[in-house]
Amino acid sequence: MEAAFSKPIVEMVSINQEIHKFLVAWTIVLACLCYSHTTAKFFPKGKSRFLAIIPIVFVFFILPLYLTSAHLGFTPVLFITWLANFKLLLFAFGKGPLVSTQPLPLSTFIPLACLPIEFQNSSISDVETIKKIRPKSTLNHVAKITLLAIMIRMYNYKDYLHPKIILSFYCLHIYFMLEILLTMVRTMVQAFSRVEVEPPFDEPYMSSSVQNFWGRRWNRRVTSILRLTIYNPVRSIAMNWIPRKWVSLPAVLTTFLVSGLMHELLFYYTGRLKPNGKVFGYFIIQGVTVTLEIVIKKLWNGKTWVPRIISVPLTLSFMLHTSFWLFLPPLLRGRADVNGWCTESLAFLEFIRYGKLVSPTNFTCPF
Predict the structure, then answer these.
(1) Residues facing 119 on adjacent strands
(2) Is residue 100, in this structure, part of any structural domain at all?
(3) Could you tell me if 254 and 299 are in contact, meaning their C-beta atoms sit under 8 angstroms apart?
């Protein structure tokens, strides 16, 4: 069964067919969000609104199976299956970014629900744990786009490079691709809404600890929604059972557990390979590491004793090595997903260069 997916899934359909499916999928999303917005007028928050919205949650879980492209299929999984579903579940109980003192207009409700954005005055922000960051300069984004294009070209010379260098390229590819995509979304929302939107990343390669990486720098929108849906409720429950000083520990572990499950689902949607548990294990290790870091800091009264010149390289080394061990193998397994990313990326570069669509099947990815 898995052998059927050992070559790029994107080869099974033409680009035009995939774009058509992508547009249909997002049309369904818009219709579902219009319905969800309307439920607030007829159903009070709580059980009745939850029952009205739960069919939409199931639709959003099924919808990504309609797409087969690695890149086009990734955005509905992250934006809709994960973030939008979590926001809608919060909305059903009168919580989260979709709820305000005055009902949000549909023009605001839809982008907030289906896009990984956060308005700077949004109630979703936890100012004690997520700092406001300055938007990056245009030169910063141009540099990352240039580096991503160079790396994609370097994949053709894989046989001449050390395997660890190639694995590092994969990690940077994921980071640059995510930041470029989310920054484009943020820029478009700001242009249309004229409301300041929080940047999605804060230079994660400058993290001084694993907790700093996941809590403040990496994919801050996912961090925010996980804090509301998982961390805060578990923390509140834990306060009834353990001393207040340690209530964050089970909350952190549970948050990483849920994140691991959602990433397993994300990898399945984009690669169509049976999960082997490595991605889940990766996030459990990250959760245990962050928990130990919190314990040590509390025992030392919050003081840090490692200078940044040492802590930053140590953190980066830990993140890379654990990614090489557990996070990247599921992408490389069967060569389906990474191969799809590579060939689609090469096809996109050809589109930028020549101004016409080129089928990804015309490229050979060296993975």
Answers:
(1) 197
(2) yes
(3) no
Contact 249, 225 (CB under 8 A): no
79 pLDDT higher than 90: no
pTM (predicted TM-score): 0.81
In angstroms, the CA 335 to CA 329 distance is 10
Q: Which two tokens stand for residue 165?
A: 């260098």
Structural domain harbouring 155: 134-197
pLDDT digits (tens, 9 = 90+) for 173-210: 889 988 988 888 888 888 777 777 788 898 999 999 99
Q: What are the φ/ψ torsions at residue 355 (nearest 5 degrees)?
A: 75, 20
Tokens, residue 254: 């549970």
List the Cα angle 26/346/360 in 5-degree steps.
65
Secondary structure class of 197 (helix, strand, coil) = strand
Answer yes or no: is 36 within a domain. Answer: yes
Between the CA atoms of 15, 73, 264 and 282, what dihedral angle is there, to the nearest 10 degrees? 90
DSSP structure class, residue 96: S
Q: Which of 146, 175, 197 is the last residue of a domain?
A: 197
